[in-house]
Amino acid sequence: RPYNIRKMADDARKKRAAALEEKKRRLEELKARRQNRQPTRVPKTTGANLDAYIDGLLKSSAPAVVTPAPAAPAPAPKAPEVEPEAKPVAAPAAPVVNVVGVPAPAPPLSPVRKVETFTIGIQTDEDDFPPPSEASDDEDEKKKAEEEKKKEEAKEMEKEEVEVKPKILSSDEVESAIKSPPFTSFLNNASKKVERLLGAPLLADLLVSADYAGEREEKVGPEGDGDAVEAVASKLVTTSVAFECGKWTATRDVTGLDWSPVHRELMLASYHMPSMSSSLSGNSAVAAVSPDVTPSASLIPRSGELQSDGLALVWSLAMPTRPEHIFTCGSPVLTARFHPTEHQLIVGGCHSGQLVVWDVRAGRLPVQRSSLATVASATKGHSHPICSMEIVEGGSGLVTAATDGRLNFWSLANLRDPAESLKIGANVSCLAVAPESNTVICGDESGGMHTILTSTGAATTQASSSSRSGGSRRVVRKLEAGDDGAEGHFGMVTGLATKVLPRHSSRGIAKGFLRGSSGLMLTSGVDWTTKLWAPAYTDKPLLSFFNHSYDYMCDVQWCPTHPSVFATASSNGSLGLWNLASSLDEPISGTEGIFVDKASGSAQGLNKIKWSLDGRRIVAASADRLHVLGMSEDVWKPKGDEDARMMHNLTSRGFLDEDKV
Q1: Is 212 strand, coil or helix?
Q2: Which residues is 312 bridged to in the sheet?
Q3: Residues 6 or more apart from 44 whose CB is under 8 A from it?
Q4: Given this model, what pLDDT does residue 126 score?
Q5: Could you tell me what percentage of the chain is helix, strand and coil, using 3-state DSSP and rounding each to the nearest 5?
Q6: 436: DSSP letter
């Protein structure tokens, strides 16, 4: 073991030291003996006197020779030679005497001990016999840790003794701290993250279809058999979520809806002015045009912002109780759209006739406004409220319609002034854009329908039924719906919808519209009807769908993924779903429809509806509340032959000529 090895090494060192001490002692004794030794004397001769003896010695031819003694061994020191003090020389006849000094014999040397060291080890566990160095290091570390802990405890005791009581802020200081930009930014970001996390299950229900075979719960027993309307609704609608923020939207009405083309969980809603305020009050207008430092993501209003005439909110499906972004302006917003290419921008049409652009990165107020036209000099821009707006030319252009019948075409690169303008001889109430040809269709307040074609698309139209507006390259044509429009709407056209262009284009264009099912369009009106049109074949409506409750029809929308499904919104608060491939007479939602806002207990009408781009959700606006309905696969997922079946139903009933189709 290491301990025995060290002991053996110590013993060897002690023995070597003792041997060295013995050698030193012997050397000292030898030196003392040499010093005490007497020199050898030469006996005196019998000469007359010493002088004569020396002279004879010097004159002799054979001098005395002194033979040196042999050297001692190497380990012993060499003995010094002893020379005679005087060497008397005898007479010449006397014999020569040789005097030799013999050294004393050297003392015997002590034998040198040879020490051999070796290591002996035993195999054991390392934990049983820790090295002494590590053990000492651990002890040192423990001592240091204990000392540091004692120092920290002493410091904490000193802090507690010298601790200052917290300062109590006054109400003014609290208000200024809450309104400070760092605190506001932190509160908004942190609260949104928490609310998004809490709304993750809701977002999953709305974005992911949970309508798998065998997983949907069916009502059984007396309740399921007795309530047929509820049974139909539960079969078509999988999820229903209400979005409302009474602090900002109370007493307002939704005027427009849109879904984000980039983020499928975001939707846009524009709102009219509050019912208790007046646009001539001036206070909200002054507050709305004042410098804005509040970000759009903040929920805290500035002074007078809650009564601002114009309001547009961006909602996230994960947060039903608060909007994602808030935008305001000094005029009621009647329609709004997400920018098709710049997802940070939002375009709105106002009651003042201005186009406004908001940027989510630049606060709540618009970053750009179009020129404000007047009635006297309305050569460009709108001087009346903008009632409808659509994206044209593949996302590079915008068309707006005002209530005075003026249509303006804008470039999204320059929204200060319109690139083209024309006038329709009627008060426009809504508009839509046909796929492929970019033909614009407008409905007016008296029930009439108008189409605006480019000069190339108008070549096939009759010259007697068309008219050019000034120097415009577009041609305006009115659809003659029977004698004096007897087969058209008998009141204002409230909604107009064209189909989304399918992946495979159909059979060409006629009169500015696609042939086949892609050229069909829908209109809704206050005369309780929804009408189906095919402008490529005839100016008259093909079919009318009546509301059995005799209520106004407020909006209509084609499903973007199913070729034969569309939805209608009624003023009694019911949502109607139709599948023309299944029936031309009865909706798949039943004659009563699906009542959206049943929880409120009041019969609130539906203002607007809008399908999501994937067809799985539809948002319906009731007063200031938004309802997002998740649709089952029976509604949005086509089976493959619905398009052909719908056209067969129309031709077999005589609504379309089979030879022309």
Answers
A1: coil
A2: 270, 327
A3: 88
A4: 56
A5: 25, 25, 50
A6: T
40-99 per-position pLDDT tens digit: 554 444 445 677 777 777 766 555 444 444 444 444 444 444 444 444 444 444 454 454
Residue 108: CB atoms within 10 Å: 8
Taking residues 218-243, what's their average pLDDT?
A: 68
Beta strands in 439-547 (DSSP E): 440-444, 449-454, 466-468, 474-478, 493-498, 509-510, 513-514, 521-525, 529-533, 541-546
Alpha-carbon span 66 to 100, nearest angstrom:
6
Question: Three-state DSSP class for 190?
Answer: helix
State the Cα torsion 650-655-657-661 to the nearest 10°. -40
Q: Where is average pLDDT lowest: 62-76, 437-451, 474-488, 508-522?
A: 62-76
Helix (H) or strand (E) holding 401: strand 397-402
**Cβ(5)–Cβ(120) under 8 Å?**
yes
Beta bridge partners of 569: 555, 575
Per-residue pLDDT tens digits for 354-363: 999 999 988 8
Paired tokens of 168: 């109590």
Give the containing element (helix H, strand E) for 557: strand 553-558
Residues whose CB falls within 8 Å of the CB of residue 304, separated by 6 or more in sequence, listed in order = 283, 284, 286, 287, 288
Distance CA 360, CA 617 (A): 25
Chain centre to alpha carbon of residue 400: 35
pLDDT digits (tens, 9 = 90+) for 615-650: 999 999 998 999 999 999 989 988 888 888 999 999
Give the distance, in angstroms, between the CA of residue 111 and the centroid of all CA atoms in the same chain. Answer: 90
How many whole angstroms separate alpha carbon 287 and alpha carbon 281? 11
* 445, 405 Cβ separation under 8 angstroms: no
Question: How far is the C-alpha of 444 from the C-alpha of 432, rounded, in Å?
Answer: 12
- Mean pLDDT for 167-183 is 81
Q: What is the pLDDT of residue 209?
A: 52
pTM: 0.67
Phi first, then psi: what are they for 53, rounded to 5°?
Answer: -65, -40
How confident is the model over 532-538, as a mean pLDDT?
A: 91
Burial 448-480 (b: 16+ CB within 10 A, else e): bbbbbbbeebbeeeeeeeeeebeebebbbbbbb
DSSP state of 496: E
Tokens of 254: 């939704």
Residue (of 514, 554, 522, 528) closest to 541 by Cα position: 522
Half-sphere exposure of 272 (CA within 13 A, CB side): 18
Residue appearing with tokens 């390392």 = 126
- Interhelix angle for 200-207 vs 181-198, to 10°? 60
* Antiparallel, parallel or unpaired: β 237-243 and 625-631: antiparallel
Q: Determine the pLDDT at residue 656.
A: 87
Position 184 confidence tier, pLDDT thresholds 50, 70, 90: confident
For tokens 């007047």, what's the residue? 374
Distance CA 349, CA 388 (A): 8
- Which among 355, 359, 255, 244 has a CA at the least distance from the CA of 297? 359
Q: What is the pLDDT of residue 87?
A: 44
CA 104 to chain centre: 107
